[in-house]
Amino acid sequence: MKKWQNKWVRAAIPALLIHCSIGTVYCWSLVSDTIVEYFDGSVTKGSVEWAFSLAIFFLGMSAAFLGPFVEKDIHRSSLVAAICFSVGMAGTGFFIQQKSLAGIFLCYGVIMGIGLGTGYLSPVKTLMLWFSEQKGLATGLAIASFGLAKVIASPLMEFLQNRFGIVSMFYILAVFYFVLMFIGHLLLAKPEGWVEPHEKSGESVLSILKNKTFIGIWLMFYINITCGLALISQEKSIVKAIGLVGIAGLISSITAIFNAGGRLGFSAWADHMKDRNTVYKLIFVLSILFTGLTILTNGIVNGYAFLVIPLLFVINAGYGGGFSNVPALLSDHFGMKSISRIHGLCLSAWAFAGLTGNQIATYIVNHTGSFAEDAQGNLVNPVGYQNVLYFTFVLYIVALFISFFVIPASKKQKSSK
Predict the structure, then answer these.
(1) Which domain holds residue 83?
(2) Same structural domain for residues 280 and 377?
(3) Does one domain contain both 128 and 219?
(4) For the chain, how many structural domains are there in total?
(5) Residue 107: its pLDDT value, please?
(6) Cβ atoms within 10 Å, residue 305
(7) Nearest CA-CA partner of 141 in 413, 323, 290
(8) How far apart, in whole angstroms, are the C-alpha atoms of residue 41 and residue 35?
(9) Are residues 242 and 97 in the same domain?
(10) Could you tell me if residue 35 is inside a domain?
(11) Which of residues 153, 187, 221 is at a domain's end?
């Protein structure tokens, strides 16, 4: 009984507290329009959106560079995450009040981004040590909470924004999330008796980056995120383009549930497979199938909701599942000794995908087809959104090729290298 309690109290619960907090970064779309209005039109929506892109970029890059720090002391790194995330959120409120876009970039993009990266990494190895026989389930549980954060935080943020204003909302959330993350920091602990090896790892950062298996996983991860962001960033507009304006919010909530469900479901399923990489093959095959059907039928242009909505569900589930499976897949190939460092390096793919996925999709939409008003007066470009599918379709095929021919079958290593 004591072991069961420790497993949840010392690993699962703190991971949920930390990831449910930092996952709020995906709620940026709920405040970006209000920020533009607060600035009295002196900034554009496109320029404000860079705050989110910078946050994702610094999430990935801080995870890549701070992996050894997290590896050495997860207790200290989780505290750094709590401080950076809450200070960045409070600073965002302050600079909104000062009408300083550069200050918002610094706080939401850089400082919060560093908190995101360290917070994302800190609980992962601890979870895999406690749940050594169910690594996928454990990491999926935590990373699913990162995806569910938007569903949980959205109504809270809307309430606070309407009741107290956007500046005070950021101050209140900064305190609220610091408390949650600090409790997670206090609870987080590795299993009793676990001692980190003090000898230097045989693999340097350079050797890891040159490893063909790591390169394959990195590319596969990057492509899945890029394709996911390309479609998810246009999701609301696509729903409007097929004539479902009235239930766009409901569909957005359901896709968020698929995103979180994919994080937990795919990773838990992978625990029962001989080769965890099989999950990625399934994700890419499903993505290719649903994207291809929508392309062949010109589904977005023709308004075929029966194809487009399932496509969005599949892409969201695969996007989430791709995240949750990476830590365990890396541990299968490289062992547990330096998993935080290796996982951090792999998360740099997230950084670059955050700067390319939605931007490429926006470019395609803005430069192909033509915008027109729908029945409700919304500007939509069905041809442009349809053309985004060609881009993702090709990349999913490349990712499937990598999953079959570049990444070798896992040996399901149960012990550290």
Answers:
(1) 1-187
(2) yes
(3) no
(4) 2
(5) 97
(6) 16
(7) 323
(8) 9
(9) no
(10) yes
(11) 187
Same-domain pairing of 31 and 169: yes
Decide if 193 is inside a domain.
Answer: no
41 within some domain: yes
Q: Which residues pair with 380 in a beta bridge?
A: 372
Checking phi first, is residue 370 left (phi over 0); if not, alpha (psi -120 to 50) or beta? beta
Tell me the per-residue pLDDT of 123-145, one tens digit each, with 9 for 90 and over.
Answer: 887 888 888 777 777 777 777 78
Find the helix or strand (DSSP H, E) in which 326 lies.
helix 305-334
CA separation for the pair 186, 316 (Å, rounded) = 33
CATH code of 327's domain:
1.20.1250.20
Question: Taking the complete model, does pTM exceed 0.85, yes or no?
Answer: no
Where among 136, 160, 187 does a domain terminate? 187
* Other Cβ atoms closer than 10 A to 267: 32
Q: How far apart are CA 53 and CA 355, in angstroms?
A: 6
- The Cα 131–Cα 133 span in angstroms is 6
Report pLDDT digits (tens) over 64-118: 888 888 878 888 999 999 999 999 999 999 999 999 999 999 999 999 999 999 9
SS3 of the chain: helix, strand, coil, percent, to 5: 80, 0, 20
280 and 166 fall within a common domain? no
Distance between CA atoms of residues 240 and 42, nearest Å: 28
Q: Residue 83 in contact with residue 177, Cβ under 8 Å?
A: no
Rounded CA gap, 303 and 181, in Å?
A: 44
Rg (CA), the chain: 21
**Which tokens hold the place of 25?**
């970064």
Say what the pLDDT of residue 4 is.
46
Classify residue 279: in a domain, yes or no: yes
pLDDT, tens only, 147-189:
778 778 888 888 999 999 999 999 999 999 999 999 999 999 8
Residue 115 CB-half CA count within 13 A: 31
Identify the residue whose tokens are 């209000």: 34
Same domain, 158 and 261: no
Which tokens in the block code for residue 371? Answer: 């915008």
φ, ψ for residue 39, nearest 5 deg: -80, 5
Q: What Å distances lie between residue 225 and 48, 152, 247, 323, 354, CA to CA?
A: 22, 22, 26, 8, 8
Let me know: does 347 contact 67? Beta carbons within 8 Å.
Answer: no
Identify the helix (H) or strand (E) that includes residue 380.
Answer: strand 379-380
CA dist 196 and 273 (Å) reads: 28
Mean pLDDT, the chain, rounded, equals: 87
